[in-house]
Amino acid sequence: MKAAVLYKTKQPLQVEDVDLAPPGEGEVLVKIGAAGVCHSDYHFMNGDLPITLPAVLGHEGAGVVEEVGPGVKTLRKGDHVVLLFRAACGRCEHCAKGRPALCALAGQLRNTGRLLDGTSRLSRNGEEIRHFLGVSCFAERAVVPIEGAVKIPDDIPLPIAALMGCAVLTGVGAAVITAAVQPGSTVLVVGAGGIGLNCVMGAVLAGANQVIAADLSDAKLETSLDFGATHTVNAKDQDLVAAVRELTGGEGVDYAFEAIGNPRATRQAFESLRRGGTAVSVGIAPLGTDLSIDAGELVYQEKTLKGSYYGSSRPHADVPRFLNLYRTGRLPLDKLLSRRYPLEKVNEAYDALLAGEVARSVLIP
Ligand code: ZN
Ligand code: ZN
What we know:
The chain is of the alpha/beta class. The chain folds into two domains: 219 residues, Quinone Oxidoreductase, Chain A, domain 1; 128 residues, NAD(P)-binding Rossmann-like Domain (Rossmann fold, 3-Layer(aba) Sandwich). α4 crosses α5 and α4 crosses α10. The protein is globular and about 60 Å long. One zinc ion binds next to loops.
């Protein structure tokens, strides 16, 4: 089958034929219907985050189960599934407390680049190729552990389902689960890319009265208005914190989301809060990045700064719930899908993403 392989950081992905072994115990083989072009893969491509190579990238995907391994009872051939890059065991303390994003299972998949039995299903000419976050969906097919697949209704278009696997759970989840944005509140979203637009949608869904989107690109800010942003600030032309204060009658916002992975932007998000407000860091910064905030503001103004990973979501409950909101038009995910590319054009798709041309594009293998 065809797959996009990363052999060396800072080099293009190679789309080539690789071998995929059948699913083992507790695994399923999924024919990929769509794979999202997410900025996070780029962190691994350029070496910001560590990865064992070669590996098949792609962590936001959806498809149809084609084959089930021994012992699989919860999924069957023909099931449509969303793939999860934070597969969770369902039994550990974090899972039991409703915080599966913190489960160690996903850490094991990530750190080894292999499936849960410690081996890989991917190879080329007998040489091992690693999995990526237990997903590796930049390929025609993927073998994944059942913990990393959520069954969804057949009528959901697979490109929309793919977006659930990262952008939607992460961005909408940050707003409605991590921050639990309250009706009538004021919200700032710093970064109007794929994740930021999902934070905007989440804030709107939660009933925020004012949603300010900030970015350096006028085109992205224009797009954010289609998703329900009420105001925009181009932080290239003006001081972001001062602009937010002005838009909120001098107060600052109740909630601020940082969706870039830039420590300076996180600091600005924190400074833009009103007293008692909550800033949520969603973007992924390169490994070892330091972050500084004013310690006085934290205490005297009782501000909160928290991280949000995978939107603090419980995917088996939240994927169906968010898909229902898509069905009824309350999560306008069709607008998020800017372009579709064949797998062969994966490098072109990343160039377009980095140039800021697209909100979210998908590869159709
Ligand atoms: Zn992602
Ligand atoms: Zn667990």
